[in-house]
Amino acid sequence: MNKIGKPNLEIFSETLLSEAKKNKNIIVVTSDSRGSGKLVSFGKELPDQIIEVGIAEQNLVGVSSGLAAGGKIVFAVSPASFLTARSLEQIKNDVAYSDRNVSLIGISAGISYGQLGSTHHSIHDFASLRAINNMTIVAPADNFEASQAIKQAISYGHPLYIRYGKKPMMDIHPPGTEFKIGKSIVVKKGEDLTIVATGETLQRAYLASEILKESNIHCSIISMHTIKPFDKKTFIEFSKNSKAILTVEEHSIFGGLGECCASLIAQNNINVKLKILGIPDEYMINGSQADVLDHYDMSPEKIAKISKDLINK
């Protein structure tokens, strides 16, 4: 049985503190998000390695870029909804165009803010950042991926966006799993269907695969933790050898994981059925993260039913 771990956001802060103690060049910049980013302990233990700019996300990105230009390894931490909307011009020009060693950390990503509503949801971040040259996008699924993403970010040397949620996550990956930015992880192999998920929806896809197994339906599960650069090779290989592809993401159906997969299928003339699960183009309901995902057919039971319908079409 896969045990439930900590929220990925807590793993982010614990990993970053551990690494920063070993490297004085690691600097954290926050926009009034020390508490929500779980960085209170970081501030107490390493006060000279954290900078607070207040609720000023554009300044956050600009200051981070300047520090990186001076040789620092910078982590800019802010709620994902505001970081990737208010600061988009600074991300494009100060970080990506200038090729700064800045890791943009979008906290409480997707619909983690739940009942605070659509103003606080970041279901646009993949779409907006995918269109910016020289921007890597990572959405860790479990505690293992959350920790590895930070460790690799330190030596990555280029602009990086990583999004984290607030809910405790199931441990998906067994010991010995290899994580590499830009390379997906094949969690399961099955001949009937391939489910491609990113970020915290991987847990729901995994649970759906267990339900499907009871009906003798065996599916492959791919953790597409890196949205850009996309692991085209693995995706195309599985697309050519599956009866159907189902994508699952805590993001708009426009401009994210699903549309990237659809583009690859079309451009490579692959004859496979495809279904995209995500947030549709409508005024969203309010509720907890779980309530919203369930409403939009991303409960494990709904994913399993949709999978069955897809392969039986």
Describe the protein in words.
There is one protein chain. The protein is an alpha/beta fold and 313 residues long. It folds into 2 domains: 4-170, Thiamin diphosphate (ThDP)-binding fold, Pyr/PP domains (Rossmann fold, 3-Layer(aba) Sandwich), CATH 3.40.50; 185-311, 3-Layer(aba) Sandwich (Rossmann fold). 39% of the residues lie in helices and 22% in strands. The chain has helices at residues 8-22, 40-45, 57-69, 80-86, 88-97, 125-130, 143-156, 201-213, 232-240, 257-267, 289-295, 300-311, and strands spanning 4-7, 26-30, 50-52, 73-79, 102-107, 136-138, 160-163, 168-170, 185-188, 193-197, 219-223, 226-228, 244-252, 273-279. The chain has a 7-stranded mixed sheet, with helices on both faces. Helix 7 (143-156) links the parallel strand 6 and strand 7. Helix 1 runs parallel beside helix 7 (143-156), helix 3 (57-69) runs parallel beside helix 5 and helix 8 (201-213) packs across helix 12 (300-311). The longest helix is centred in the first third of the chain and has 15 residues, at 8-22. It starts with a strand and ends with a helix. The mean pLDDT is 95.
